[in-house]
Structure to design on (269 residues):
């Protein structure tokens, strides 16, 4: 499934670019700024502890940690199955640790996994496929895992794990839509608390509420214009023309709302 690392000379240059096909795991903390605002020293200590857990799980599977900068972790795996198994093990271990903490002190990571071709420079990896893993991570629920279609194609029927298909998703700065799947790992008793997950799950609801308010306003304006037309009747209907402008503005507003990327309505931090 995974090709060996190879080097390809760049035309007109003396340097070479190394590329390889790999599985990229991107993880970071949901609501990190909120946690830091509550308790900087405690949050940093917990972050380092949880990063140690994650690094330990990755190295147990003899895979490679690429980076642990900031509040994130970037790792790569030659096997998609191993990448997903590692992600599940990480989330379950961290969930167990979180159960021992008060809800407002719990630290939940989001994980995205993608399989693709990357550029290797020293010990780091770059490219659109790395960015896709990061975009999936930013879309995931706290404590959750999202995988791309390329990863799903490799792991389906190979893991005792269910996945929900979320459909093709338009990711920021990625040209083509990416099929996305969510790993089903939690029952009702072990899901992250609602108040912790609210910042992520509330975005679609907020968008629907905003659209409903806009629709009500547009309808009220059209009704008002119609009433004026009737009460000042001069033999013809004129209110349809300003009404069309109002409806056009509503359509533009609705289109803008539904084209927003997941996570744009509310920042993860």
């Amino acid at each position: 499934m995974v090709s060996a690392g190879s080097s390809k000379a760049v035309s007109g240059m003396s340097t070479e670019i190394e590329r390889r096909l790999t599985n990229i795991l991107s993880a970071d903390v949901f609501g990190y700024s909120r946690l830091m605002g509550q308790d900087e020293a405690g949050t940093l200590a917990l972050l380092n502890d949880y990063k140690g857990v994650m690094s330990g799980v990755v190295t147990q599977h003899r895979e490679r940690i690429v980076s642990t900068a900031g509040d994130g972790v970037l790792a790569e795996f030659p096997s998609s199955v191993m990448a997903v198994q590692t992600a599940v093990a990480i989330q379950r271990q961290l969930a167990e640790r979180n159960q021992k903490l008060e809800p407002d002190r719990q630290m939940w990571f989001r994980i995205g996994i993608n399989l693709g071709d990357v550029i290797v420079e020293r010990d780091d990896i770059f490219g659109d496929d790395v960015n896709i893993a990061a975009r999936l991570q930013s879309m995931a629920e706290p404590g959750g895992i999202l995988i791309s279609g390329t990863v799903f194609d490799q792991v389906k029927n190979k893991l005792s794990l269910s996945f929900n298909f979320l459909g093709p998703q338009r990711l920021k700065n990625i040209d083509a839509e990416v099929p996305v799947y969510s790993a089903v790992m939690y029952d009702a008793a072990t899901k992250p608390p609602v108040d912790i997950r609210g910042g992520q799950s509330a975005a679609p609801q907020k968008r629907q509420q905003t659209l409903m308010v806009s629709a009500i306003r547009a309808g009220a304006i059209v009704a008002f214009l119609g009433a004026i037309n009737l009460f000042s009747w001069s033999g013809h209907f004129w209110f349809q023309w300003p009404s069309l402008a109002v409806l056009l503005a509503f359509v533009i507003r609705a289109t803008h709302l539904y084209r927003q990327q997941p996570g744009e309505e509310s920042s993860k931090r």
Q: What stands out?
A: Confidence is low (pLDDT under 50) at residues 1-14, 194-203, 261-269. The first strand starts at residue 6 and ends at 9.
